[in-house]
Every structure is written in structure tokens, then in C-alpha cells.
């Protein structure tokens, strides 16, 4: 059985990649070893540019956030508050509160609607590359093995990726072995009161910030996304004081969580499990990994998501943008509308984003560590954040909007190489709406605001490029050529520049 792309791993990255491939006209198959969707309580939201990407695909309503994404008035970096409301229209931070299992459900439903095949209960045993294909040996739950073929194989199988290991791709980086992070969903408690302004009152301690309360022994956070089962977290930079810190194979208990809270806060806070029938979570992570694949490609094999990079940060945000970047390029090569050289831009573009995330998550972790020197550094950093220039820089870093792709050419007018700006447009036929609504089908788009016909004439031979004449206010350029992943490939009004961009990104040669 032959497919265009076989995707190993049916988590968010794999499912979103499958949906994006279907939008681009390719036939993917997702192989997921788990027979049922993972119901574990993991990530609890998305932050930054990825929220706008999901808006481009019309998925925010399904994720419980109807309408256009709105910038968040505040956020945190290293436990320090970011007053993002001071940035006004330059605020790049958007938030989407959704837990990972619900996000997976939304993405699975979308992939199914688009006709993507997802085989659950199938584990990839091995693969072999040939001149024109990859052959994959997979084993089902009943022990049956089958051989499948595809033009390309993508490993979306997590940080312990079997695909990465078999491809012989090193996972460069290291571990911060001096931290222990614990998380638990707990039941409601009369000793905890959530207060306005993002604060919480704890009996025996007093009023503290609900997010990132740093003490001499660690960091405490309490998220009241669901008052019936708040999420509690601790981070400690020292091992258990009596030396009996549980090993990595030892299941975490609620009693262990209570002891960690007491060490960090200095007060005993009895904890109870969530109400019967509600999701539960007890998780301990010893050490923090910061790794990136030596390369994202080996012949016809690609890596995306945690298989390509891990950090103690917004890896899910990175994973979904990896998928959007890779999908349209793979599909273009499969369809013959682009040459293999296009695939080389996947690593060069997405590695830059991964490196930035690893840098800023390590910096944020350092700002939370105990010690007088760190306290002094935090005081200085807080002063620096009072300047809107510094605030804008850190906000772009955390949101992932500060990375600018190289789009070729000697001159790149803004916003070339950046994610598409949020614009309200009125098309030539009189319809008014948001630019995001024109990007639902994941096709390349030429947004022509010049009022003329010269640019449309240049783009006419590229039939896959949708041409929309429109008017708007606040556009940074008279015309934008927007790639399927939402990045601006060209901006301006020069027909020759547009033609060069069309040839570079949407032509076989």
C-alpha cells in the first residue's frame, strides 16, 4: 500500500501535519502505536504566534475560543510579569487555554474530515530508504506485520523518537540535572482562595501570586483554570534534603507533592485528589532537557516536533509550526510543483525557531533559580522591562514572532520573512472580513492592494496561487505574497520582485 507521506506519531504534531498535507493535496497515513487517544493531562494551552496559525485554519472556535484572537494584556518571563498592554498594537502574544487531549481531539477530527488515514495500534518496527520511496514495516496489536511504502517518512514520535534513532541522527544538547519539577491536579481546598488580579490566598502563608512565586527553595505555581481541579506545580533546585529523592521509575504520589510544596513554601498544605471521574495527573520530571537534532532530514526521512527538539518550554507551539512549514513543501514536491531544493528550507527555517526557544527557556529557568545573585539579576531585569523597547523584544522572543525567515533576493521589504500581519480587508467584490479567513484552505495567496492589474498578470501562470484584490488600512506593504504556512514570501509592488518570489517558492525548477 503506497502513500505520499507516512507520519509516525499521532500526537498534535502528527495529526496537524496530516491535516495540512490533505489541504495541500497529498495523501498521508498516520501510524500511532497507542490504540486509543492519550487522555493524560499534559499541556494546558498554547501561547504566541501558533494561536494565529490555528486561526488561519479556522480552528479556534473548535478549541473553545471563538472569534479573532486577542492579544494578552500580560504574560511572564522567568517568573517576572510582562505588562504587554503597554505595547498596544505591537503586542504579539496571544493565548489559547486548551489542554493537550482536547487539542488532539480537535486535530484528529479535522484530519478525519479532510480524509487523512490514522491507523491506531500500529507500531513502526523499521524502515528502509530507496531511490524513490521509503518502505516501513509496522506491527499491529495482533502481532501482524505489514510493509507500507511512501514517498516520504516523517517522525513525529516524540523526544525518544525511534525514527530519529534509526536514521542515525544525533540529538545534541544536554540536561540541567539540578532541577526537579512536580505537577499535580488536585481537588478543591478550603485552604486555597483564588483572588482577583492573578493572586491566591493560602492559609498559614498569606497572599501570593498564583503564577511563579519564587522562594529560597524553589518556585510554586497554582493555576485555577478549573476551580474543581486546580493545577499545582513546584520546581526545586536541590535534591531531597535527606537524600531519599525517588528515582525516575518511582511513581509520584500526592504525599510527595505535599512534601515538595512544604519545602518550597514553608507551610504544610494538605492536598486531595480531583473529584471522582475527573482527569488526574501526578508527574515528576527530574532534570530538564535541552536538545536539538543534528539535522532534521536524512534522505526521504524528516523529523518534526519533539523528535527534532526538546526544551523546558513551549515545545507544542514549535511542533505545530514545524508541521505547517513542512506540509506544504512536501506536498508541492509530491505534486511536482516544486523541486527537491524546497525541502532544504524546512530545516534552515525551523531550526532557527527551535534555537531561539531553547535559548529563552534556559534564560527564563536561570532567572527562577535560587540565590542572592539571581535575586539581583531579577531586580535588574525587572527594571529593564519597564522600557517598551526591551519589553517588545522579550515579548517577540516568547511569542516566537521575532524569527524572520530569509526569503532570498537582495532587498526584503517588511514584512517579508515574517508571519502575516493581522489585517481587516475588503475584497474587490465588496466582502469585508479578516485576512485570516482568506487563508483557511492553506493555499498561497497574493493579496494585491495596489488597485492595478500588473501583479495579478504576473501571478496568472501560477494557478495554485490565489489572487485577491482588496483594500485595507494599516498594511505594511502595497501587496503581500503569503505562503501556506502564513509567512510573507514577498512584499512590495515590483512585478519583477513578485515573479522572482513565485519562481523561488512555487516553481518546479
From TrEMBL:
Gene3D superfamilies: 3.30.70.2450, 3.40.30.120, FAD/NAD(P)-binding domain (3.50.50.60). One of its GO terms (molecular function) is monooxygenase activity. Keywords: FAD, Flavoprotein, Monooxygenase, Oxidoreductase. Residues 3-360 form the FAD-binding domain. Its cofactor is FAD. Pfam families: FAD_binding_3, Rng_hyd_C. PANTHER family: BINDING MONOOXYGENASE, PUTATIVE (JCVI)-RELATED, TRK SYSTEM POTASSIUM UPTAKE PROTEIN. This is FAD-dependent monooxygenase. It comes from Nonomuraea salmonea. The lineage of its organism: Bacteria, Bacillati, Actinomycetota, Actinomycetes, Streptosporangiales.
Amino acid at each position: 500500500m503506497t502513500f505520499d507521506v507516512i507520519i509516525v506519531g499521532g500526537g498534535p504534531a502528527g495529526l496537524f501535519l496530516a491535516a495540512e498535507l490533505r489541504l495541500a493535496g497529498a495523501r498521508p497515513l498516520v501510524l500511532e502505536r497507542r490504540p486509543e487517544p492519550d487522555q493524560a493531562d499534559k499541556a494546558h494551552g498554547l501561547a504566541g504566534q501558533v494561536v494565529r496559525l490555528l486561526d488561519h485554519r479556522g480552528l479556534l472556535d473548535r478549541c473553545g475560543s471563538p472569534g479573532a484572537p486577542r492579544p494578552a494584556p500580560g504574560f511572564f518571563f522567568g517568573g517576572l510579569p510582562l505588562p504587554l498592554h503597554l505595547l498596544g498594537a505591537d503586542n504579539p502574544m496571544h493565548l489559547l487555554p486548551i489542554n493537550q487531549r482536547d487539542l488532539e481531539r480537535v486535530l484528529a477530527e479535522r484530519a478525519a474530515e479532510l480524509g487523512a488515514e490514522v491507523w491506531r495500534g500500529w507500531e513502526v518496527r523499521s524502515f528502509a530508504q530507496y531511490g524513490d520511496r521509503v518502505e516501513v514495516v509496522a506491527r499491529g496489536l495482533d502481532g501482524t506485520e505489514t510493509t507500507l511504502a511512501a514517498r516520504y517518512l516523517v517522525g513525529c514520535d516524540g523526544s525518544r523518537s525511534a525514527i530519529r534513532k534509526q536514521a542515525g541522527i544525533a540529538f545534541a544538547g544536554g540536561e540541567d540535572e539540578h532541577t526537579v519539577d512536580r505537577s499535580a491536579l488536585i481537588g478543591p481546598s478550603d485552604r486555597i482562595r483564588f483572588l482577583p488580579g492573578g493572586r491566591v490566598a493560602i492559609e498559614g502563608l498569606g497572599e501570593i501570586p498564583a503564577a511563579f512565586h519564587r522562594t529560597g527553595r524553589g518556585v510554586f505555581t497554582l493555576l485555577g483554570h478549573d476551580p474543581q481541579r486546580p493545577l499545582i506545580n513546584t520546581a526545586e533546585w536541590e535534591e531531597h534534603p535527606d537524600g531519599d529523592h525517588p528515582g525516575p521509575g518511582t511513581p509520584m504520589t500526592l504525599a510527595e507533592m505535599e512534601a515538595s510544596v512544604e519545602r518550597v513554601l514553608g507551610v504544610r498544605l494538605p492536598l486531595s485528589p480531583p473529584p471522582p471521574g475527573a482527569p488526574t495527573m501526578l508527574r515528576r520530571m527530574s532534570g530538564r532537557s535541552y536538545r536539538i537534532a543534528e539535522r532534521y532530514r536524512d534522505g526521504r526521512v524528516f523529523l518534526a516536533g519533539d523528535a527534532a527538539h526538546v526544551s523546558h518550554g513551549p515545545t507544542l507551539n514549535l511542533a505545530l509550526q514545524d508541521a505547517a512549514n513542512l506540509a506544504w513543501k512536501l506536498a508541492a514536491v509530491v505534486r511536482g510543483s516544486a523541486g527537491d531544493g524546497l525541502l532544504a528550507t524546512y530545516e534552515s527555517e525551523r531550526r532557527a525557531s527551535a534555537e531561539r526557544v531553547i535559548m529563552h527557556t534556559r534564560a527564563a529557568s536561570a532567572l527562577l533559580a535560587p540565590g542572592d545573585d539571581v535575586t539581583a539579576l531579577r531586580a535588574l531585569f525587572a527594571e529593564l522591562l519597564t522600557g517598551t523597547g526591551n519589553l517588545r523584544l522579550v515579548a517577540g522572543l516568547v511569542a516566537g514572532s521575532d524569527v524572520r525567515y530569509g526569503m532570498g533576493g537582495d532587498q526584503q521589504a517588511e514584512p517579508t520573512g515574517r508571519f502575516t500581519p493581522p489585517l481587516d480587508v475588503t475584497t474587490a467584490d465588496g466582502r469585508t472580513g479578516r485576512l485570516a479567513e482568506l487563508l483557511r484552505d492553506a493555499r498561497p495567496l497574493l493579496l494585491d492592494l495596489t488597485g492595478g492589474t500588473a501583479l495579478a498578470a504576473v501571478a496568472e501562470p501560477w494557478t495554485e496561487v490565489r489572487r485577491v484584490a482588496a483594500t485595507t488600512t494599516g498594511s505594511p506593504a502595497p501587496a503581500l505574497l503569503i505562503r501556506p504556512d502564513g509567512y510573507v514570501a514577498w512584499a512590495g509592488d515590483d512585478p519583477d520582485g513578485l515573479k522572482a518570489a513565485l519562481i523561488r517558492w512555487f516553481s518546479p525548477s
